[in-house]
Amino acid sequence: MKKIVNDILKEELYYDKLDCGLEVFFMPKEGFSKKYAVFATNYGSNELEFIPINENQKIKVNEGIAHFLEHKMFEQPDGGNAFDKFSLLGASANAYTNFTMTAYLFSATDNFHESLDHLIDYVQTPHFTDENVEKEKGIIAQEINMYDDNADWKVYFNTLKAMYIKHNTRIDIAGSVESIYKIDKDELYKCYNTFYNPSNMALFIVGDLDCNKVMETVNKAIKPKDTLDNIKIFKEDEPNEVNQKEIVENLSVSIPLFNIGIKDLDVNRSGNDLLKKEICTEIILDMILKKGSSVYEKLYLSGLINQNFGCDHVSQIDHGYTILGGESKDPHKVRDIIFEYINKYKQDGLEKEDFDRIKKKKIGMFLKYFDSVEFIANNFISYHFRDINFIDYLDVLKSVTFEDVSDRFNKHFDEKYSVISIINPK
Amino acid sequence: MHKVERINLGDKINLTFIGVDKFKTNLISVYMQRPLDKKEVTKNALIPNILKSGSNKFKSQREISKKLDNLYGAGIYADIAKKGDMQILSFKMSITDETYLDEKILKESLIFLNDMINDPLVEDGGFNKEYVDIEKNNLSDKIKSRINDKSRYALERCIEEMCKDEKFSIYEYGYEEDIESINEKNLYDHYKNIIKTSPIDIVIAGNLDKDKVLEYIKNIFKFERENVIDIVGDNNIGTVESVKNVVDKMDVTQGKITLGYRTNIDYKDDRYYSLMVYSSILGGGPHSKLFVNVREKESLCYYVYSMIEKYKSIMFISSGIEIDKYDKAIELIGEQLEKIKKSEISNEEIVNSKNSIINSINSVRDSLNSLSDFYYSQGISGVNENLDSIMKKIENVEIKDVVDVSSDITLDTVYFLRN
């Protein structure tokens, strides 16, 4: 068991890798009532072609299967539901699937060890039958329909479809009503047995708890399995261009919604190298686009954007993008003004003063985030699958220089690799 | 653990100090109470964004932002909310605890927050005209954009229809037709009146020295006060003559239903805690009757839940369904309420429900914002309970108490959003 201490944060992190390959992290949080655990697999909706465990032929599975699997994991061999026991213990449980991972979690103010035992146990106990798989289809179809009416979701997914030509991130996480109806129990087991091996998973625990006792519960609950070597996943190469410059759809909304996406070509990085790229990009967004920047002020005062305007950067190992979005009567004009400013900064250079101010801001905000156990756990686990130890964030942030940021700005913020997605009122 | 102290600062201004040492953040909140009234609701809704647009010292959003960045990413949140028959304006500032930083920022932050509230940007006896015009447009867009979130919209429409003749039906962000007559002068006059006459609460929470904070607050926060108003709400207890059925049509894929019920139980009544358990058994999570029977057994929906509108003694049930499954959904929901009436509640159901509520009450301690809102709400509603005593009351609820409240719960309005 290793212990890492961060003096600025005044936090400690314990780490261990079990014989079965599972990596376990624990962060003590003295005085907090809530204890939180997240058990996750490095497997999300993007993984659609792979060689299943103990087989040698690659298979292509139905879209939305990782998310379907997440729903079905709650099914218990006795016919009950994994929620039942959490409820009895007073724990609040949930799960989520995104493009790259699937996570199972709970928070509890009481009965933590029993709940943790149950979490580890149920995620290791698949129970799929023809009947229970069939029954889930109606529920997931309603979940997909719900998102179909959600304009924020639509405008975002259309941006991904516009940016990507081959990469699976252009496919909806939940799949389509058509694709999920083709899923059966054998396909679910193949995915489960391949990707839910402890050596492909991680467990993060945070709360006012005793480290030894936590590890004891984990060790007791984890079921031994042969560790897996690398899982063979197949992905098509993504061309260095965008799929389509513009994508427009109509929905029942009152004012057009837009997302401007900028595709990142600087990919296939991991670890602190990837983290540094992410932090540099976030600093740039703060410097030139968020509140406090001249472009935001111009757009806001001319009534082209409102308080809903925001921007974000996603840095995954094999893909990445920046998204700027909000509501506007004239999304094209917003895009033109933004790139006008970007091109101006490319000529004149960024402002060092802005850089210093934003760095200060980011340090203060990062410290505040550590007041939320949910934030801590969910971020640690998602960074972990990108080979990043989240506790290093402040060190990497402090090491970033103005030159790093200027360099990243010149490379990434290119109109040529930008797309616009618009949802117009019907 | 946390310590709470309420201090009367005079002029109907209360200070609540929440001392708690586990956080890296300090949160300062200023709340002002207004009556929920059609005559002023739209003006009140404009105020937060006007104040955030510029103060006398920091004349633009951009200058404000830069100042906040330099205070190590301090955050300002200003908004309005509906609480029963009141409209609450809140201004919050969240800062990093200065013991983690190289600089002291608490006092400067308090001065900043006071400037935003008590020294706004005023020109020729009014707010800045440009900012007011922009925010009038933004508010109008915001009101129009109510249709964007369909499940929220279904809930708000149900409230509007159900409480037609009551103050509670007023939409907290106001009305488009009232925006035009607002200008920089009459809005500023109204704001001065808000400062003069509203009951004001300051809540400060974090790892702080009480005496130092008290001294800062007394020296920094200066409100111009006059005759402070008392806010009187509607009577929330009454009978339902006949169930209202309301259908709206919109181009949607999924149908949204919201059912509104009169609970006839006041939040000051001890039976309110039985009502909380009732709602949890009915639709408070994966352990609830609605989740198990409508979602899991019948695969009718992805989400279905019930919730209580504490200050208005009403309860809602919401779900998203296939449009042609409307009758089936209504029937199944009705059956779940009937089961509770007939005392068909297992021991497991009541234990699960109580545990779930206790878990969320306990979790309030882990968020400065929840703690601040909790003690503020307790203070203004005159309920003298703390987190521990509420948990105790929940603990003591028995099946017979749940069945007892079920007889008071009456369906008032069924709302359906469909294509």
Automatic annotation (TrEMBL), chain A:
Annotated InterPro entries: Metalloenz_LuxS/M16, MPP/UQCRC_Complex, Pept_M16_N, Peptidase_M16_C
Pfam families registered for this protein in UniProt: Peptidase_M16 (PF00675), Peptidase_M16_C (PF05193)
Residue span, Peptidase M16 C-terminal domain: 182-361
Domain annotation Peptidase M16 N-terminal: ranges: 62-168
Cited NCBIfam families: YfmH_fam
Name of protein: Pitrilysin family protein
Species this protein is from: Tepidibacter hydrothermalis
UniProtKB/TrEMBL annotation, chain B:
Annotated coiled-coil segments of the chain: none
Domain Peptidase M16 C-terminal: 181-355
Source domain of life: Bacteria
Pfam families: Peptidase_M16_C
Protein name as catalogued: Pitrilysin family protein
Species of the source: Tepidibacter hydrothermalis
